Amino acid sequence: MHELLALAVRLADEAAALIREVRTAGFAVSAKQDESPVTVADTRAEALITAGLRAAAPDIPVIAEEEVAAGRITAPTARYWLVDPLDGTREFAAGRDEFAVNIALIAHGAPVLGAVASPALDELHFGIVGQGAWRRRGAVEERIAARAPPPDGLTVMASRHYADAPELAALLGQYKIAALTNIGSALKFLRLAEGAADFYPRLGRTMEWDTAAPQAVLEAAGGCVLTADGTPLRYGKPGWENPDFSAWGLR
Fold first, then answer.
1. pTM of the full structure
2. Per the CATH hierarchy, to which homologous superfamily does domain 2-144 belong?
3. d(CA 210, CA 60)
4. What value does the mean pLDDT take over residues 173-183?
């Protein structure tokens, strides 16, 4: 597992460097069939990651967002990689810093390890569920852990694109809230994993490659990701689409 985590970390780091190069050079934005945006950063980063995973671990299948969008469908097996080469393409295209590279290993429907690079922030979060989670910021690497909610209320991370949803307001009305921040991409999970926030409710569409790696990091840090019925969010679902979920630090 540690060798596979090191592989995911290395490739996430290399993909982050490539994405920074594309951002500096400039890029065009296209639309996929589902009208979601895609850039050369998505496709080049995915090519780097998938080639690296297949070369180093040829026995583990790879399922990646842009390959699926292009019609290359790999059936989930007992163990497989799940890749989002640029989570938060809308944020990337808009010039914001809230985008990430997600690489996860799924085993029997559960994320067991993950690496998430945040190219614009020079951060890399990674972990193995049951063994711990870490953050590398610049040259400094340290262990991270989710926190118990403080007495003054929850610090909430919520999606930028669902900030005005009435369903979100209704849900948050059930809790004592100390602060609310709306941001994009996997960063919401990461702030929970490092103990800077407590709750991320998701009441809109996500795909499995959006959530697998950051879920692994959060669970490695002691948090959890639960569906509406209180069961853990799992993987290998038809169409790769997630239901609504809630991510938590320590509960």
1. 0.95
2. Fructose-1,6-Bisphosphatase, subunit A, domain 1 (3.30.540.10)
3. 20
4. 94
